[in-house]
Amino acid sequence: MSSFTFTWLGHSAFAFDLDGHKFLFDPFLSNNPLGAASPDEVEAEIIFLSHAHGDHLGDTVAIAKRTGAKVVSNAEIANWMSKQGVDSHGQNTGGGYDHGFVHARQTIAFHSSSFPDGTYGGDPNGFVLTAPDKKRIYFAGDTALFSDMKLIGDMDIDIAFLPVGDNFTMGPEDSLKAIEFIHPKLVVPMHYNTFPAIAIDVAGWANRVSSETAAQPIVLDPGGSYTYDHS
Ligand code: NI
Ligand code: MN
What we know:
Elements: E1 3-8, E2 14-18, E3 21-25, E4 46-48, H1 54-57, H2 60-67, E5 70-74, H3 75-83, E6 88-91, E7 96-98, E8 103-108, E9 125-130, E10 136-139, H4 149-153, E11 159-163, H5 172-182, E12 186-190, H6 202-212, E13 216-217, E14 225-229
Parallel strand pairs: 3-4, 4-5, 5-6, 10-11, 11-12, 12-13
Antiparallel strand pairs: 1-2, 1-14, 2-3, 7-8, 8-9, 9-10
Manganese (II) ion (MN) binds near residues 53, 55, 142, 168 and 191.
């Protein structure tokens, strides 16, 4: 049985520990109003980036340079990272790759993607990560609801990380339909309450998830952790 712990660092930033292997999603920390860790202290072997927007790219370059982490993202972001002197691995929508302690497949996401200076950032993505024991998570990135989430639901998702803040991504209402399509065991909300435009009643959201879907909502405070029981 493997051990799998994740910590919400605010917005869409998460730190994971999978059997001692550490990785990050979208580490937007130093300018994040909810940022729950310093870019100087987080550890990572891999940094997964969903797209190039500043609230996801965040502190990736500094963290990657300090830790030696490999950045896994779309081809455009991977090339941009290489030019910053950062180790990177480019994938693209629909493609999977075995990164050793975890397999990563990039999914579609309906959003946009440009670097903070406005240059093209390729297509936005989500990720399906599969551990060696076949436990599987879906990190949706920034996206609208889309019906092909049903195909992701066919992949036996243990935990789904979904944006719920509305305005820039799907909101609470659409996330309930997404949960129906993905039917994960656990669902973790992200991309909410960071800014006034994406403030939501997350307790109300969690109540609706519990009463209207088969998934268990896991609402963390910034800096809060959850350990998934793999048994
Ligand atoms: Ni975005
Ligand atoms: Mn965003």
